[in-house]
Design goal:
Structural class: alpha+beta
CATH topology of the largest domain: Beta-Lactamase
Low-confidence stretches: 128-173, 533-547
Number of domains: 3
CATH superfamily of the largest domain: PAS domain
Strand content: 25-35%
Number of helices: 22
Helix content: 40-55%
Mean pLDDT: 79
CATH class of the largest domain: Alpha Beta
CATH architecture of the largest domain: 2-Layer Sandwich
Shape: elongated
Largest sheet: 8 strands, mixed
Length: about 750
């Protein structure tokens, strides 16, 4: 394998190599080149033909906030007070990559970071971990501008462009090898034939189902349309008739009240004559005592006058019901021998009593309203007993025929619903019916439509059209299935041929599928498996050697940066006060039990507050927030640390109460907390790796914990930590005696005042 290419990827997707032919290089970057204060570092694996095969992420260049803010915004920034970040990279022949990061202006640069990695080992480990997030498409680089003049010499630009051409030519050769492998395999019963058969069968089944569904849908749609049209006409006729009846009642009531208010008989007669003079619908207005007739209308309609006086006694039940405030309407055509109807209407009088008006009307007008929309639908008016009032033949109306043999009428009479639409059968013929009740249910407009009138020509036309289209589409499906099957069979045959080579012990199989579907992915994964089969256990063992399981997982995911790096952290040192004195009073078993309870509290609180246990020495536990686990900001890390210490104190107090009940010595914690920079990284041998932090910050934390052991305070923090948590934490400065260092700024945590 040729020596890999190591480079960085800038914010604008520019790829910048970090090593040249002399195995070294210096690159200058500015603020706009970083993403979240980071520049990722990649290693490009090369084939035997010096062609780029894979690109892996192996770490990142990360600056702290202070260093990041000091950088120039971009290369055109003229601010001479701002700095560049200088990256000095070297790579030995055995693959040891070193990167020095410095900040400065012109020739005055200050070293801030160092990175070191074995790039051959990184390639092997990441290649066989098969982590998709670490694997990039080289096309992401070559499809964009390669670099800028300030960052990359012209020779390097030419080299990258040459590599692009190599990749393109390689694609053609891969394709030839791909088809060559597929042609070597002969199948007795090819899947292509089965695929075409299945496609044709599936299409025929789907086409038949679609034709049946669409035909049924159109047929049902015609039926629904008929029902809807029937219901609309019913609603329209009901609105017309309801308006007419309401108008008749209003006119009659107005006339009756005006007539009743007069004491002069002559004036009453004038009012009566004036009302009936232009009235073409109302034949008479009856009360218990009066009969006010429209002589002209009675004469022209052929109504028998001698029967009008007896109407109240004939419909005694309706009169009594109207006296209770209820309306009703009856067909009296069979009594007066003319198409007429009688409306019983309650008129509010003194107190809670009602006067009953009997309004005799000519029902021909109602019949005209029923048939206003033509004769396609049968529309008529019935009373609450199902008797016809208007709308049908004269003979039917004259006989006051009961219409309950229509199911829709029977539904109105029995259900007393305000509105309904349904289908029913009568005399072996299907009907669509609808009704709408009027006058508080005392009558209803009925509309009936025979199903035989529905036009099915549209459905038949649709059926023939669908059959024709299905035949045309069948031909297209057969051609499409044949072409599509080739995209399945060729990769499958190539995979079969490659499997034979692997079975024979040849693992040098490098298939590259040109499709992005599942089969193409399978071919690519198979090729990756052939390259990584023997090394999978090595990567597992390598990343499994970290002490903390969570850190191991971070390393496995490629999120641990190269070498050592400067991190801003908050550290906690915690131990038991007077631990040696306590152990002297307990047996060995009791000491172990005590430590177990203590460690359970500490470990649980650390886990709940997002800390990382660095080491445990006896009763002392070192916990770090900010590296490699962080809550996002140094402030939040510090808050989580102080919250953790407070939680430990509270739970240890509960443990102490339990110990006192058992006549055992109680325990108190000594917690020291400090915030500051550390050097974090992987330390250890090949047999064991440990991610840890070193630096003055840990020494200062240990010192303040030591002072907590000697004081009566449980939790002490430094000024640096207090600056980060002061808005959510109440603390008081510790006053030491004169013999102590006057420069000490220790603060005792009283309580948390907020929750973040």
């Amino acid at each position: 394998m040729n020596k890999p290419i190591v480079g960085i990827r800038l914010k604008d997707s520019t790829f910048v190599p970090l090593i040249d032919k002399e195995n070294k290089k210096t690159v200058y970057v500015c603020k706009s080149d970083f993403v979240n204060r980071q520049i990722p570092v990649y290693v490009c694996r090369l084939s035997e033909k010096a062609e780029i095969e894979k690109i892996y992420k192996i770490g990142s260049v990360e600056l702290n906030q202070e260093h990041y803010e000091s950088l120039k915004e971009n290369t055109d920034d003229s601010d001479n007070s701002k700095k560049f970040a200088k990256l000095d990279a070297t790579c030995s022949d055995d693959g040891i990559f070193e990167l020095e990061v410095s900040l400065g202006i012109k020739t005055d640069y200050i070293h801030v970071k160092s990175y070191e990695a074995d790039i051959y080992k990184e390639i092997n480990e990441q290649e066989f971990a098969e982590r998709e997030e670490a694997l990039l498409d080289y096309g992401d680089f070559i499809k964009r501008k390669v670099t800028t003049a300030i960052l990359l010499p012209e020779d390097d630009v030419k080299n990258i462009l040459t590599e692009k051409e190599s990749v393109e030519s390689k694609s053609s050769s891969d394709r030839d090898e791909y088809y060559e492998l597929a042609q070597k395999v002969k199948i007795k019963k090819p899947v292509r034939r089965k695929f075409i058969k299945f496609a044709v069968f599936a299409f025929l089944f789907a086409a038949a189902a679609t034709i049946y569904f669409v035909f049924t849908l159109f047929r049902d749609s015609a039926n629904i349309e008929a029902q809807t049209r029937n219901s609309d006409k019913n609603t329209y006729a009901a609105a017309k008739i309801d308006s007419e009846i309401s108008s008749i009642i209003e006119r009659s009531e107005f006339f009756y009240r005006l007539y009743l208010a007069q004491s002069n008989n002559e004036l009453k007669n004038k009012i009566r004559d004036s009302f009936f003079a232009g009235e073409k619908t109302i034949a008479a207005v009856l009360t218990q005592d009066d009969l006010l007739k429209n002589d002209k209308l009675i004469y022209s309609s052929g109504i028998k006058e001698d029967t009008l006086d007896s109407l109240f006694s004939t419909y005694k039940a309706d009169v009594e019901n109207a006296g209770k405030g209820n309306k009703s309407i009856r067909n009296i055509s069979h009594i007066v021998k003319s198409c007429s109807a009688l409306i019983f209407y309650p008129v509010k009088s003194a107190g809670a009593k009602y006067d009953v008006l009997g309004i005799v009307i000519n029902s021909d007008h109602l019949a005209a309203l029923c048939n206003e929309n033509g004769n396609e639908n049968l529309t008529f008016l019935v009373d609450d007993k199902g008797n016809i009032i208007a709308g049908l033949d004269f003979s039917v109306v004259l006989s006051s025929q009961n219409m309950c043999d229509y199911s829709i009428v029977n539904n109105f009479v029995n259900d007393k619903s305000s509105k309904m639409q349904t289908s029913f059968s009568k005399d072996e013929e299907k009907y669509y019916g609808a009704f709408k009740s009027l006058m508080s249910g005392s009558c209803a407009v009925i509309t009936v439509n025979p199903a035989s009138k529905i036009d099915l020509k549209k459905s038949k036309y649709v059926l023939s059209t669908l059959c024709f289209l299905a035949l045309a589409e069948l031909f297209i499906v057969i051609i499409f299935a044949w072409i599509t099957s080739l995209k399945i069979t060729i990769p499958a045959k190539a995979l079969i041929s490659a499997t034979d080579r692997v079975s024979a012990g040849d693992y040098n199989v490098k298939l590259k599928s040109h499709s992005k579907d599942e089969l193409g992915t399978l071919v690519t994964k198979f090729s990756m498996m052939c390259q990584s089969l023997l090394k999978h256990e090595n990567i597992k063992m390598s990343f499994g050697k970290f002490g903390d399981e969570r850190i191991s997982q971070i390393a496995m995911n490629g999120k641990v940066s190269l070498g050592g790096e400067t991190k801003f952290v908050t550290t906690l040192f915690v131990s038991i006060k007077n631990f040696l004195d306590i152990t002297d009073k307990l047996t060995a078993t009791e000491v172990v039990e005590l430590l177990s309870k203590y460690m359970d509290v500490v470990f649980k609180c650390v886990s709940e507050n997002k800390g990382c246990i660095d080491k445990v020495i006896g009763d002392e536990v070192v916990v770090i927030w900010g590296s490699p686990l962080t809550s996002g900001t140094p402030k939040q890390d510090a808050i989580d640390c102080v919250k953790c210490a407070c939680a430990m104190k509270q739970k240890i107090e509960s443990v102490s109460r339990e110990l006192r009940r058992e006549n055992k010595p109680a325990i108190k914690l000594a917690c020291g907390i400090h915030s500051g920079p550390v050097v974090a990284g992987q330390i250890g041998s090949s047999d064991r790796k440990e991610y840890t932090c070193i630096g003055r910050t840990l020494k200062q934390t240990a010192d303040i914990k030591g002072r907590a052991l000697l004081s009566d305070k449980d939790i002490l923090i430094t000024q640096d930590t207090l600056n980060l948590v002061q808005d959510v934490c109440a603390a008081e400065k510790v006053a030491y005696d004169e013999s102590s260092d006057a420069s000490l700024n220790d603060y005792a945590v009283i309580r948390m005042t907020g929750d973040r």
